[in-house]
Amino acid sequence: MTKIVFCADDFTGASDTLATLARAGLNARLYLTAPEHSKSVGKNDPDLGPDSLDAFGVATSLRAMGVEDGVATIGPIADSLAGAGSGLYHFKICSTFDSSPDTGNIAAVADRYALSVGAKWKAVIGGQPSLRRFCLLGNLFAGAGNGALYRIDRHPVMSVHPVTPMDEADLCRHLGAQGWPNIGLIDFTVIRQGRMALVAEIRRRLATGEIETLFDVSDETDLLTIGEAIREIAQTTATLCIGASSVAQALFPSFAANADQPTQAYRRPGPVFAFAGSRSSLTADQVALARNYVKRSIAPSDLCDPTALDALRNECLSILGDGKHLLVSLSDDRTHAIASHDLARASAAFIAAISQTVKLGFLLIAGGDTSSLAVQELGIDSLSFAADFDAGAPIIRAHSTRPTLDGLPMLLKGGQMGKPALFDNITTLPVAVK
């Protein structure tokens, strides 16, 4: 019986949630479209349809959409998920909650999701300690690449995000502006009283008509207590959880027992193709440190110029055809007039064109919106967890009817994820022997 189903607002976080569920011992799969029936896809795909899985999810690019498009997108997906989650559903969002009333609106999408699946209560998990995201008295804090911890509205990257800058740390105010003016907060002082006290407080809130509740998360213990309480509430009240992979950590705590049993990571024969579309300073540093690639920096305008794009594609195919690892990164040219979503779409089309032509040993994409759109362009049917690799950035495996893509190991990373040497670390993975 399916224990939980989830819909993710992007692919980088979706892959982390997939990995978290797999670590917990759940048989999990990530689909690109809502599954309708059991069907084995590709020779590397075991016969795992949604009916035979403990957990499954659908990955989308909701985080980059406007309100109308987001609601229209989540509607049919949520309709197909209704009844599959044993009363527990998850809307996976970014751990930094970056969103706005106009773009990636969390409240509007969650409301439509809850309507379809019949969820009467929405539980918002405010932090993910494993990624150094903490929520205290409703305020969100996040670690940065320099090791320091910042309130999210003072974070050196997220406060100046090019699409959805986080200018409000109080998540009740942040989500209130998106359509939840009456969201409640259960702070860490209540959570630390234990499961029974927390369940009693939730039931009291529900009796008063509260339908959206934010939970503080200061450490892993808070997560475990929250998870115990939510599981109890969900037995009688259909519940939609909103949050990052911390939701899976809270609901299925056996992940801790499996965390020290890593799966061996491999490349398959063939070159590594990496594309860095993220503009974060951490990704820029990772690109600069990479030594094992032929590097090409391209201007955003080149991706939208057919002549320049054709020349670039031919050059990249030649490099990869020679068996050399290739790292393509967008230059930090801010003078172009290309909308962020259009640039992400152009990047996605370029990545797909390369990946569908050459049989790669590994595909690495840096950038949340770019990753989401690129995977959708590829022609992949579903994704499974392959191995742990870096915090918030696991290795996943593609399942597809396309021979160049079926079995392809991939890593999709957000701008703030990964060690400095992440790109080169991929190239040093052992190659699987068939």
Briefly say what this structure is.
This protein has 15 helices and 18 strands.
Summarize the SSE layout with pairings:
Layout: E1 4-8, H1 11-23, E2 28-31, E3 55-59, H2 67-81, E4 88-92, H3 106-117, E5 121-125, E6 133-136, E7 139-143, E8 149-151, H4 171-176, E9 184-186, H5 188-191, H6 195-207, E10 212-215, H7 220-234, E11 239-243, H8 246-251, H9 255-258, E12 272-276, H10 281-289, E13 294-298, H11 300-303, H12 306-321, E14 326-330, H13 340-355, E15 362-366, H14 368-378, E16 382-390, E17 393-399, E18 409-413, H15 422-427
Helix pairs in contact: 2-3, 6-7, 13-14
Tell me about the biggest sheet?
Answer: 15 strands, mixed
- Approximately what portion of the residues adopt beta-strand conformation? 15-25%
Radius of gyration: 21 Å
Number of helices: 15
Task: Name the structural class.
Answer: alpha/beta
Number of strands: 18
Mean pLDDT metric: 88
Helical percentage: 25-40%
Instruction: Identify low-pLDDT runs.
Output: 37-43, 255-260
Please give a structural write-up:
There is one protein chain. This protein is α/β, with parallel strands linked by helices and 434 residues long. 35% of the residues lie in helices and 21% in strands. It has helices at residues 11-23, 67-81, 106-117, 171-176, 188-191, 195-207, 220-234, 246-251, 255-258, 281-289, 300-303, 306-321, 340-355, 368-378, 422-427; strands at 4-8, 28-31, 55-59, 88-92, 121-125, 133-136, 139-143, 149-151, 184-186, 212-215, 239-243, 272-276, 294-298, 326-330, 362-366, 382-390, 393-399, 409-413. The strands form 2 sheets. Strands 9-10-5-11-4-1-3-2-16-17-18-15-12-14-13 form a 15-stranded mixed β-sheet, with helices on both faces. Strands 6-7-8 form a 3-stranded antiparallel β-sheet, with no helix packed on it. Strand 16 and strand 17 (393-399) form a beta hairpin. Helix 6 (195-207) crosses helix 7 and helix 13 crosses helix 14. Residues 37-43 and 255-260 have low confidence and may be disordered.
